[in-house]
Amino acid sequence: MLASPGTAVDSHCPYCALQCGMSLTRTRADGAPPLEVRPRDFPTNRGGLCQKGWTSAAVLGVSDRLVTPLVRGTSGELEPTSWDVALDLVASRLAALAAEHGPEAVAVFGGGGLTNEKAYALGKFARTVLRTPNIDYNGRFCMASAAAGMNRSFGIDRGLPFPLSDVGGAQAVLLLGSNVAETMPPAVQHLAGARAAGGLVVVDPRRSATARLVGDPSTGAAERPASAQPGEGVHLAPVPGTDLAVLLGLLHVVLAEGLADRTYLDERTSGFDDVARSVAGWWPERVEAVSGVPIGELRRVARLLAAAAPVHGGAGAYVLTGRGVEQSTQGTATVTAAINLALALGLPGRVGSGYGAITGQGNGQGGREHGQKADQLPGYRKIDDPAAREHVAGVWGVDPETLPGPGMPAVQLLRSLGAPTGEQARAGGPVRPRALLVHGSNLVVSAPDASKVIGRLKSLDLLVVCDFVPSETALLADVVLPVTQWAEEEGTMTSLEGRVIRRRAVVAPPGEARSELWVLAELARRLGAPQSLAFPTDPAAVFDELARASAGGPADYSGLSHARLDADEASSGPGLFWPVPATPADGSGTQVTGVTRTSDTAGHPGTPRLFLERFATPDGRARMVAVDHVGPSDDVRPGAPIYLVTGRVLQHYQSGAQTHRVAELERLVAEPYIELHPVLGSRIGVADGARVRLTSSRGRVEATARWTDAVRPDTVFMPFHWSGIGSVNQATTDATDPISGMPEFKVCAVDLTPVPDSPAVRGDARRTKELSP
Predict the structure, then answer these.
(1) H helices of 609-669, where?
(2) Do both 238 and 379 map to the same domain?
(3) What does the pLDDT look like over 56-75, one tens digit per residue?
(4) Cα(262)–Cα(272) distance, integer angstroms
(5) Does residue 517 sit in helix, strand or coil?
(6) Is residue 569 part of a domain?
(7) ∠ at Cα 518 (517, 521), nearest 5°?
(8) Are residues 335 and 352 in the same domain?
(9) Which of 84, 273, 592, 647 has its CA 20 to 30 A from that of 569?
């Protein structure tokens, strides 16, 4: 039931994994927008919001909101229809394809923005009703390499195994591949301690907004942030794709100069000797030759981190990674090297120090914990573990033998779509998915090598998209189902810290929009699911089932319920960190599996900090794993002599399906652009403000050139929030990390040429002159 008009309701931002706390107030009595948004003093944002958060309510009332099901008619256009017609069509075609080709002919692609309840229900639906192994989600593009590295080294994956607020007290923070000043601006305040101590180190080939937080004594005062002081931290700008070499060099210096915490290594880790041998050859001179990072800067950073480590009496240090180093064919290896460095300094498992990965999508953490990932069951269980299968099947009321095995990771799944060609058909092999259900993802813009993905989507026998706006992917669909969003639904999210929080309904959904929980329940009924295989539509009931399914798993939510989370918030609690196992009535803390859910609010207090006593490995020790630098899969060469790196801008989010519909944000950044150094612009004849063409071996894009000395002369930067001719993912490679399956979004080789007859469009002669070499 919706709160009355004028009543502030606590909830969270619909965008990134920082999940900033906000209060929402409905101003109309009929339950419709508009909605007033105000920030809350929540631990992650502490009363702050970014531009996206402040304008988030605008998406609720966009003019092209999907309000009725659409089916592609005989004219070839999407036409309005009833829910019964749309769902009957989807169910009949799914059943026919499965009957003819087997259950593997149907695939599901989820999203990191779905609530925990919807992510759980989607995984359950795929594996019990469709019985297909082919489910993955766009979180494969976000946290897969960090997850693989943390699982391998720590035995568990929680992006930040500590509260973000802990970082604020650190003396040093090494931040690799994350531009938090633009992607999640309220998080910058948690870097204040390191900045004040001169210990913020940013590794990025661009002088991004985050890198500009770092002062450099050689930088003119006009180019430093007003709050920066000379010598405040370090910005390392390596050759794109060489971050792993930098990490290996840092560990080499730590060991060579006797800066490691040997007692910690002896007591809490295994594999150190192999790692020490593997970095012996990465002396600073070699690192400089490979990465371009000067020897003196490498030594300076290693010593700065060591001085902040507890073993040397420092106030604490953190090593944090983001997509810039993880979206790589050596992303898992890079994360592993970052963890090795942190372990050598004795950081993980100590209050005020550690390693963490900064999750990007709103529910990127929870989305992978509860069944959207190709190889996982709820509770972060492995789908090929017989005990895990038995437990989850028991909760679902099915035979464990009927559950499919591991499916294909996202990029492989997308490559496999569509009917086989003549040669493929003759060769036989695995069944190729001919139908795809898409939930909370805009593949046309967000997938690598996007032109090929578009072709594969068009080749499907059936494409069904659940969305709340007509995204580029929805416009290709055979059936579009309008679903609820953000402030129209109840549920839970799990933030980048593993903090489980409540999302609340404040306004009524428009038209005939329905929750995906209802959609899945209706499809299950139409596809003949037995009554014993329940698909509840009440989010609280779905969460209770999720909690039972997660019991005993690494991501144990069995001690949580909507009622407990509500009670925690009512008493000024900030949400609870998993694992939160159910506890017996005597409060002894012994984990109970297969518990019956109640509305009791007492129980396990949650686990804000992991690894304080032991790591989640069989012997309790963190595993150090030797890795080596290879380089990007698509390196520079004649014909493609320039590195392309991609990323975000402050005003837009992911594929831009939401933010491009917010007039205020669209006015601020209305079109894509390509940043290039003035030296490069002059050499290739591209003026500041002119149109420029970027070409890779996969495709080409065009955008406006922006001259800036914030990017290396051998590198260009392009944001990825646009479709069409300005869609940079038409040029990116779909080469993947062999362990995580994450694609190498962040670096590839391109050529850059002027678009013929394209003069500068901004007419900013003064700026062009200032930046000319």
Answers:
(1) 663-668
(2) no
(3) 999 999 999 999 999 999 99
(4) 10
(5) helix
(6) no
(7) 90
(8) yes
(9) 592
Tokens of 112: 């990191």
Specify whether 137 is located in the same domain as 148.
Answer: no
Helix ranges restricted to H, 2-42: none
* Position 426 confidence tier, pLDDT thresholds 50, 70, 90: low
Q: Give the tokens for residue 239.
A: 């050759």
Rounded CA-CA distance 755/761 in Å is 13
Distance of CA 536 to the CA centre of its chain: 28
The count of C-alpha atoms lying within 13 angstroms of the C-alpha of 50, restricted to the half-sphere facing its C-beta, is 26
Q: Taking Cα atoms as reference points, which of 432, 457, 455, 454 lies closest to residue 445?
A: 454
Same-domain pairing of 372 and 496: yes
C-alpha 609/C-alpha 577 separation (Å) is 8
b/e code 579-598 from CB counts within 10 Å (16+ = b): bbbbbeeeeeeebeeebebe
CA distance 84 to 268: 59
CB within 8 Å of 430: residues ≥ 6 apart: 104, 416
- Enumerate residues 6+ apart whose C-beta is below 8 A from 352: 166, 169, 170, 310, 315, 316
Structural domain span for residue 438: 70-141+363-532
Here the tokens at position 64 are 């092209």
User: Could you identify the residue written with the tokens 């490498």?
Assistant: 298
46, part of any domain? yes
- 733-763 burial by CB neighbour count: b if 16+ within 10 A, else e? bbbbbebbbbbbbbbbbbbbebeeebebeee
Q: Which of 357, 388, 418 is the last residue of a domain?
A: 357
Tell me: do 735 and 694 sit in the same domain.
yes
Cβ-proximal residues to 478 (8 Å cutoff; 6+ apart), any chain: 71, 72, 460, 462, 463, 464
What pLDDT, on a 0 to 100 scale, did the predictor assign at position 77?
Answer: 97
Distance (Å) of CA 174 to CA 218, 326, 341? 21, 15, 11
* 229 and 327 belong to one structural domain: yes
Q: What is the pLDDT of residue 206?
A: 96
Instruction: Note the pTM of the prediction, 2 decimals.
Output: 0.93
Residue finishing a domain among 332, 357, 382: 357
Q: Taking CA 507 as the corner, what is the angle to CA 506 and CA 508, rounded to the nearest 5 degrees? A: 130
CB-count burial class (<10 Å; 0-12, 13-18, 19+) for 768: middle
